[in-house]
Amino acid sequence: MKTAKLAKFYRIDDGKQFRLKDFDPADTGRWHSVEQAKEHLLKDVARLEDLQSKLYAQDRWAVLLIFQAMDAAGKDGTIKHVMSGVNPQGCQVYSFKVPSEAELQHDFLWRTTQHLPERGHIGIFNRSYYEEVLVVRVHPRSLENEKLPAPLLTRNIWEERFEDIRGFERHMARSGTVIRKFFLHLSKKEQKRRFLARLEEPEKNWKFSAADIHEREYWDDYQKAYEDVIRNTASKHAPWYVIPADNKWFTHLAVSAAIVETLEELSLAYPKVDAAKRKELQAARQTLMKK
Ligand code: AMP
Ligand code: MG
């Protein structure tokens, strides 16, 4: 079975009609098991390695992959899997945490710009500026911390942030940064199972955080916020992928397929050597051969 069309199924280019309930977190398409998918998982990782090497050599496009999800949806594992074949020199991962004092002295996109990937590189955001319309929306206290002048704190703030995000992403696209956004869509039931595993299995204990249990109580608010985010910020140049996350192997398969598809659309190739450069190479060869 081919993965070529797999990712397209989960891709949202235009969010107007988007409903989260139309997407099943346990969906695995026509795939049934990790055994069946294994060969493709490996193939996509190898394909990615080759494409990334060309992206780096060409040094024109930059690629930004954004990962957002509820806790325990598998962001870390997916990033690890997908990037397992990629040369670390051409790749940077950045995890966005609760903003620092210094970051809170600036606008909400300020810290983002400092971590954007350079040309030829793949940048991965583990969480991102989307937290500003997710956790900050679900917990009004976070917004208070941002020290915005009172007249700017209106009911329109989320609409305004969506508009600013759309503008920012359009600007990045026009500058040669290809943005792809992944929402790893986990069910509440599977989250419970994974939290329990973190409590019960010693080697998973370190991953457990009491704060995660607290956030789980806001599950419905988060789902609503995610739906609104996708409805308002999915676009052709910066689409969302709503990836089923109840089965990790399928998450990895679908995300790899989406990234491979994205890089393939860029028609990447190693730079061609012109006549002058060829002459230079020849001269270098002759010099080397003499000694
Ligand atoms: P983790 O990814 O588990 O290390 O946790 C990072 C935490 O930082 C999560 O609880 C996020 O919701 C939180 N966080 C990330 N960005 C922001 C933000 N802009 N405002 C408030 N909290 C944030
Ligand atoms: Mg966490």
Largest pleated sheet: 6 strands, mixed
Shape: globular
What compounds sit in this structure?
adenosine monophosphate, magnesium ion
* Number of distinct beta strands: 6
The residue ranges in which pLDDT falls below 50 over 5 or more consecutive positions are none
Describe the structure.
- The protein is of the alpha/beta class.
- The chain is 46% helix and 12% strand.
- It has 11 helices and 6 strands.
- Strands 1-6-5-2-4-3 form a 6-stranded mixed sheet, sandwiched between helices.
- Strand 3, helix 3 (110-113) and strand 4 (122-126) form a beta-alpha-beta unit.
- The radius of gyration is 21 Å and the shape is globular.
- The mean pLDDT is 95.
- It binds adenosine monophosphate and magnesium ion.
- Residues 96-99, 127, 131-132, 135-136, 142 line the site of adenosine monophosphate.
- Residues 71, 209, 212 line the site of magnesium ion (MG).
Indicate the topology.
Layout: E1 11-12, H1 34-58, E2 62-69, H2 75-82, E3 91-95, H3 110-113, E4 122-126, H4 135-138, H5 140-145, H6 157-174, E5 177-185, H7 188-200, H8 210-216, H9 219-233, E6 240-244, H10 248-264, H11 275-290
Parallel strand pairs: 2-4, 2-5, 3-4, 5-6
Antiparallel strand pairs: 1-6
Bound molecules: adenosine monophosphate and magnesium ion.
The site of adenosine monophosphate has 10 residues, from helix 4.
Overview features:
alpha/beta, 291 residues, binds adenosine monophosphate, 46% helix, binds magnesium ion
A few lines on this structure:
The protein is an alpha/beta fold. 46% of the residues lie in helices and 12% in strands.
